[in-house]
Backbone:
């Protein structure tokens, strides 16, 4: 396996998994993760000899996802880190794989919501109150949802369908 494909198949998943873990444990996604995702995309795309059109479409998909993420953030539906990692992931995923990315992210978000509702129920909450602080916070009634987890699931699901993945 050549180096660019190794980066594609290892660095991207590693960074989105780190984003999910940071979000679930701290309810924040550090900016360096989104910056690293964007910074790694262009060298990998060029090393894989991606046509300029593919790079351009991926860039447009990422920019569109950033706009959607900013609206969702303004509506208080997701956090700022979620919006940024959503856009950075969409850049890598590109067109037409962004459609399964969005669908898988939505399904994973729904599953996450159901899990949190269960954790936060009066019957289940006592089971989590003695856990680590991040688990207690997850089980706190009315708390936020670490949507970075859903974005990670969607990104990993859609990656094999992305245009860049097929260039390697």
Residues:
């Amino acid at each position: 396996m050549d180096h660019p494909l190794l980066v594609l198949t290892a660095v991207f998943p590693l960074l989105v998994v780190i984003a999910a873990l940071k979000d679930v444990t701290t309810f924040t996604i550090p900016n360096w993760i989104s910056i690293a995702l964007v910074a790694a995309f262009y060298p990998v795309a060029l090393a894989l000899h991606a046509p300029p059109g593919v790079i351009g479409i991926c860039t447009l998909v990422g920019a569109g996802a950033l706009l959607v993420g900013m609206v969702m953030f303004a509506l208080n539906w997701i956090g700022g880190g979620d919006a940024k990692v959503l856009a950075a992931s969409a850049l890598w995923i590109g067109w037409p794989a962004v459609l399964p990315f969005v669908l898988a992210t939505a399904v994973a978000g729904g599953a996450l919501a159901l899990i949190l509702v269960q954790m936060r129920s009066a019957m289940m909450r006592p089971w989590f109150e003695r856990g680590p602080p991040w688990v207690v916070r997850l089980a706190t009634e009315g708390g936020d949802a670490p949507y970075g987890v859903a974005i990670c699931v969607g990104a990993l699901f859609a990656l094999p369908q992305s245009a860049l993945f097929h260039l390697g």
Remarks:
- The chain has one domain: 3-167.
- The chain has a mean pLDDT of 91.
